[in-house]
Amino acid sequence: MSKRHQLVPARVRSANGSVTPAQPPSAAHRTDSVSTESVLRPTLATEPLALPVEVIRVAQVSPSMVRVTLSGERLLGFASRGADQWVRIFLPREGQRRPVLPATERWWPETCAIPEPIRPIVRNYTVRRSRPTAGELDIDIVRHGECGPGTRWAGRVRVGDRIGILDQSTTYTPPPYLPWRLLLGDESALPAIGSIVEGLPAGVRAIAFVEVPSPLDTQHLESAADLTVHWLPRTPGLRVGVRVLTALRDARLPDGCPYVFLSGEQRLVRNARRLLLAGRNYDPKALCFMSYWRLG
Ligand SMILES: Cc1cc2nc3c(=O)[nH]c(=O)nc-3n(C[C@H](O)[C@H](O)[C@H](O)COP(=O)(O)OP(=O)(O)OC[C@H]3O[C@@H](n4cnc5c(N)ncnc54)[C@H](O)[C@@H]3O)c2cc1C
User: Fold this and answer.
1) What's this model's pTM, rounded to 2 decimal places?
2) Is the pLDDT of residue 10 over 90?
3) Domain ranges, ordered by start, for the chain
4) 96-99 contacts: CB < 8 A, separation 24 or more?
5) Pocket test for ligand 1, best of 86, 124, 290 (most atoms within 8 A of CB)
6) Which of 56, 128, 144, 233 lies at a 20 to 30 A Cα distance from 210?
């Protein structure tokens, strides 16, 4: 019996259809994706499948952000893995009403073997909120133009559209002994940061630096914690990430090494890590970071 199957009773189906692919593609599409704590969790399912889901609501959160609410029978009981839980979404090709979804736990090679004209397009998004008893979850998608299938889909998504999702993993796992939280990212990290701060208990100090495309893209974030959010609207012409990096370099931060969540554009993540480790001498083990996308 494989190690994987020792983890769960045989024939138990996870509501999430969780899966560790045989050869997982990088989480960040075409980017590196490394984190001291970002290992894929042990697989919990014996019948991994991409879940068919339907769009039941579409809402404009801000000019650059669309919230898509997905519903499906297999989302009933969808387990929360953590605040920055992410999923892969499978989008249909043009002309298809629904995507062809992989059915086996070797979902990645299986997906690659689907003939290109009907092969689903796979992208990564964070679960902004899930309502397991209603079988619903929200994903917030940045509309960054017409230059990618994810953003294009977010621009034309309608109630009734059908896609697939595959539950993946989480990186945000703060140990209790670190005194405060530092959250850093661009707009692609905002769903994760929003979810993290909503889950923080009262009494925890948290400071967030969030770069957004425009002043209209700030959001109201609910939190019981002692939270300060520094919204950093991008100045036209400035490269993504520069505002966060400048703010981080100049910030007067509380004493002690925080638990750091850092995500967003690849160069932002790389340079912010440097500022945190070499500049501020934080413990590398206190950082969870992931490149979400790469400018190019
Ligand atoms: C674990 C994880 C969680 C994520 N969660 C979210 C989330 O909740 N919401 C979200 O919106 N994104 C999220 N992302 C990022 C998202 O997966 C990427 O932005 C993805 O590349 C978007 O796909 P696309 O088809 O729109 O563009 P692609 O086809 O991947 O890229 C096309 C072009 O668009 C550019 N581009 C890609 N993304 C962006 C962007 N965000 N801003 C500006 N230009 C961009 C690329 O540089 C490229 O030139 C997450 C990524 C990871 C790895």
Assistant:
1) 0.88
2) no
3) 3-169, 180-293
4) 97/162, 98/52, 98/162, 98/163, 99/162, 99/163, 99/164
5) 124
6) 56
